[in-house]
Design goal:
The complex is a heterodimer. Chain A is mostly beta strands. Chain A is 8% helix and 37% strand. Chain A has a 5-stranded antiparallel sheet with strand order 4-3-2-1-5. Classes of the chains: A mainly beta, B mainly alpha.
Chain lengths: 97, 228
C-alpha cells in the first residue's frame, strides 16, 4: 500500500470506465482537485463487493474540487466547492503538478 | 385496491376534492380516503427478492444468526435525530467538546452516552464563510447509527444528482438561501466516512440551556439542507 499524495497536492481522477462496483463517481472522472485530507487506509470496496477480503488496503483521500472546474455551466460563485472521498487507485498526479 | 392513485408523495394536485363526489378518484363512494396498498399488494421486484435471498443465505450459512439480523434492524430503528441534536447542542455550548467533535464525532458522542457505531463520522461546521451540505451520490451513505435512517428524499436520484451540480438551487427549494459571499461546500460521502453538519447556532439563543438548544436542531440542518 502506498500513500503517494499529501495535503495540498493537485491530483487528477482517472478517466476510466471499468465495469463493476466502482466507487469513483462518474461525474468526477477526469477532473483535477486538491488533496484536502489523507483519511487513512481502508480495504478496497471495489474488491470487497465481490467477497475478496484479502486485497491490499488503499489510502483514502478527501479531494476538494472547484465546482466551476467540475461543471462547465456551474451556476454559483467561483468559491463553491465539492469534497469527495476518493481511494488512491483512482488518482494520478495532475498534469503540470 | 385497484386504480388507487399513489398520491402519498405527490401533493402537487389541488386539495379541493369534493368528498361527496363518487367520481373523485381520491375518495371512495363513502367520501373516505382510500387505503394505501399494502406492500404485499405491490409487485415483488428483483431487489426485494435479492435482499431476502441474501438475508436467508447469510443465516443458512451461519455467517450471522437471525437474532443478530433482527437485533441490527432494531438497533437502527431505535436511532433518531435526537441523539445528533444532543451532540450539536453540547458542541455549541462547550468549545473543548466541539474541538473533540471536529476530530472524531464517534468518540465525542460516546462522552454523552451515545453509541454512534464504528463507521467513522466526521463533522463539518457551518460558519459565516462556508455552508456545508451532505450527499452520497453513489448510494445513501448517512450517519444512521447517530441520527437514524435517512429521509426518502436523501436517497432519491433527484437529490443525489442535483445537489452536486446545482446545490444553491436545491437549497433554495428547501427554503435555504445562501449568500454569494458564503462558499457552498458539498460533501460527497462515497467511501468509508459519514458526515454530520454542525449548523450555525441561531442568534438570540445565548441564554438557552443545552436541552432547549437541542430542541432547535433539526434533522435537515444536520444534513445541511436547512439552516436554523
Amino acid at each position: 500500500m502506498s500513500t503517494s499524495y499529501a495535503v495540498g497536492d493537485t491530483v487528477a481522477v482517472r478517466q476510466a470506465y471499468p465495469p463493476g462496483h466502482v466507487r469513483a463517481p462518474y461525474f468526477i472522472r477526469g477532473k483535477s482537485g486538491t488533496v484536502d485530507q489523507v483519511v487513512g487506509n481502508y480495504k478496497n470496496p471495489e474488491e470487497l463487493a465481490y467477497g475478496r477480503r484479502d486485497s491490499e488496503r488503499l489510502t483514502l483521500y478527501r479531494v476538494r474540487f472547484n465546482q466551476t472546474d467540475v461543471w462547465a455551466n456551474y451556476n454559483g460563485p467561483a468559491k463553491d466547492s465539492i469534497v469527495i472521498d476518493i481511494y488512491e487507485n483512482w488518482l494520478n498526479p495532475a498534469e503540470g503538478a | 385496491m385497484s386504480d388507487t392513485p399513489s398520491h402519498e408523495h405527490d401533493h402537487s394536485h389541488s386539495h379541493s376534492h369534493d368528498h361527496n363526489n363518487p367520481d373523485d378518484p381520491l375518495y371512495n363512494s363513502h367520501g373516505e380516503h382510500p387505503y394505501q396498498p399494502d406492500s404485499e399488494d405491490t409487485p415483488y421486484e428483483h431487489h426485494h427478492v435479492m435482499a431476502e435471498a441474501v438475508g436467508e443465505l447469510l443465516i443458512d450459512k451461519g455467517i450471522i444468526t437471525a437474532d443478530e439480523l433482527r437485533g441490527m434492524i432494531e438497533l437502527i430503528d431505535s436511532k433518531s435525530p435526537a441523539e445528533g441534536t444532543r451532540v450539536i447542542a453540547r458542541a455549541w455550548t462547550d468549545p473543548e467538546f466541539k474541538a473533540r467533535v471536529m476530530v472524531n464525532v464517534n468518540d465525542a458522542a460516546q462522552e454523552l452516552g451515545i453509541d454512534p457505531g464504528t463507521i467513522p463520522i466526521r463533522a463539518v461546521e457551518n460558519t459565516d464563510s462556508v455552508h456545508n451540505v451532505i450527499v452520497c451520490t453513489l448510494c445513501s451513505c448517512y450517519p444512521r447509527l447517530l441520527i437514524g435512517l435517512p429521509p426518502d428524499w436523501y436517497k432519491s436520484r433527484s437529490y443525489r444528482s442535483r445537489v452536486v451540480h446545482e446545490p444553491r438551487t436545491v437549497l433554495k427549494e428547501f427554503g435555504t438561501e445562501i449568500s454569494k459571499e458564503t462558499e457552498v461546500c458539498v460533501h460527497d460521502s462515497t467511501a468509508d466516512l459519514r458526515y454530520l453538519v454542525i449548523p450555525k447556532r441561531p442568534d438570540g439563543t445565548e441564554g438557552m440551556s443545552e436541552d432547549e438548544l437541542a430542541a432547535l436542531v433539526t434533522r435537515d440542518s444536520m444534513i445541511g439542507v436547512t439552516t436554523l
